[in-house]
Amino acid sequence: MKIISVVGARPNFMKIAPFIKAIAKHNKSSVDKIEHFLVHTGQHYDDRMSRAFFEQLEIPDADINLGVGSGSHAEQVGHTMIEFEKVLREKKPDWVVIVGDVNAILACSVTAKKENILCCHIEAGLRSGDMSMPEEVNRLVADRISDLLLTPDRMSSENLRKEGVPEEKIRFTGNIMIDTLENKKATAASLSLEDIIRDNSVNETWKSIGKVEEDKFALMTLHRPSNVDSKEILEPIVRFMIDEVTPEMPLIWTVHPRTRKMLDNFGLLDEVMNNKNLMLLEPLGYLEMLKLNMHARVILTDSGGLQEECTVLGTPCLTMRWNTERPITLREHGGASVLVGNSIRTIREEFIAAVKKPRIPIHPELWDGKTAERCLQEIINYNSRLH
Ligand code: UD1
């Protein structure tokens, strides 16, 4: 069997790493070898957004890089489709495997199906119900046309059933990203907080703050267009962080390239850089981010993956969105996060409540570190049903 798996952007890397390991393990013990090629679309191209993850997660270099880079969604998707079609025609795989919800999954699932190649979506069935999110459009298209839909939780399987997806296409395999977390937890724990802050600092505030103590800082990440692309929304968030969070505790803000550009465009970057209790850091590697998550008193984020990692680590999480495709991470479903949107009143109330909450790790069903092997087994099973 020949498989091509695809990555494009940062959140894909921690999901593909365990899948590639599962293939290597299978090939050691089975006579039916799997031939695997890794394709990187090149959507994320910075060392910090891409290369660092390959190194830390021991992902082999991509066999093929499509070199798509940044651009509008249509440019990214169109360019990926043109280049990926060439790859499929040359390699003729049996399967294309896509993970997550970034632009690559839309482009590559459509291209695969037009070439009559089987497509498997790992992390299928997540739905935010918010069609203004580019990722929701990607999920809907990929899930509608993929042949095998591997879901991270039972709610996602149910979403697919409600959309009329036939039962034989749906398999509940668990959360593949948690495989990586379980695998790397001990290594991350051994890192030094001080080193991470010093080595990744954008504004050098650490020099005046001195030592940041574990479990006594807030952590923020922000990159969604709905939060960062307009000044009317981004400025009040920045105000809240500066006026109400930093007087309480040090704030570590790992800043995504999109957000940094916007802070600069809106004339907010200098104020952020000069705040004495705000440490602005470059985008971090996987291990460094995991270490910060293990010790943050509270996390403020609009990332999807962090909501899940906070659940497993028990870090109180304020999700700065009005909806989530990952309801299993919410407190009402047993998780560690709460939706606060970008309403400063709600953010304030929940921030005050969250800093008093104890850290209680939670393990949803099948978030057990063994998802990748189940995913591969489902692909093998599907194949043997065909032949
Ligand atoms: C993408 C994903 C999102 C994911 C996020 C994590 C889609 C639709 N969105 O959003 O689901 O949560 O990645 O990071 O696929 N840039 C750089 N260096 C890079 C990559 C990007 O400077 O390595 C800049 C680009 O020039 C662009 C901006 O960052 O202006 C945004 O990048 P883009 O790839 O469009 O989307 P993300 O916001 O990163």
Account of the protein in words:
The protein has helices spanning about 10-30, 45-55, 75-90, 105-115, 135-145, 155-160, 175-190, 195-200, 205-210, 225-230, 230-245, 255-265, 270-275, 285-295, 305-315, 345-355, 370-385, and strands at about 1-5, 35-40, 65, 95-100, 120, 150, 170, 220, 250-255, 280, 300, 315-320, 335-340. With about 375 residues, the protein is an alpha/beta fold. The strands form 2 sheets. Strands 3-2-1-4-5-6-7 form a 7-stranded parallel sheet, sandwiched between helices. Strands 10-9-8-11-12-13 form a 6-stranded parallel sheet, with helices on both faces. Helix 15 links the parallel strand 11 (about 300) and strand 12 (about 315-320). Helix 1 (about 10-30) packs parallel to helix 2, helix 4 runs parallel beside helix 5 (about 135-145) and helix 7 (about 175-190) packs across helix 14. The N and C termini lie close together (about 10 Å). The model has no long low-confidence stretch (mean pLDDT about 95). Uridine-diphosphate-N-acetylglucosamine binds near residues 43, 101 and 256.
